[in-house]
Amino acid sequence: MIVHHDPELDCLTLQLGERFDFSIHRDFHDACLGGGKPARSYVIDLGEVAGMDSSALGMLLLLREHAGADRADIRIVNASGELRSTLRVAGFDKLFVLH
């Protein structure tokens, strides 16, 4: 996982690797939730992700709560068709902006 924070925009971008599952839970938590005050916006880049499990969905929900729930600005980008379908079936297209 590659983490980039743009201090000017206060935007945190996470470029995830091949797997978005429980194996990255600690790193995801530390990058997104461990710093205390939430960033103004988040970009979750799934371009390299080949698969994700239910813990990935849980991590996204925790991030959403941390970032302000309905006021959160979280964009999920570069998801494959399969991942987009999974996110839609789970109703995440109503909670996050999917690009």
UniProtKB/TrEMBL annotation:
Cited CDD domains: STAS_anti-anti-sigma_factors
PROSITE patterns: STAS (PS50801)
Superkingdom of this protein's organism: Bacteria
InterPro entries: MlaB-like_STAS (IPR058548), STAS_dom (IPR002645), STAS_dom_sf (IPR036513)
The STAS domain, residue ranges: 1-99
Record-annotated membrane-spanning stretches: none
Protein's name in the database: STAS domain-containing protein
Organism ancestry: Bacteria, Pseudomonadati, Pseudomonadota, Gammaproteobacteria, Lysobacterales
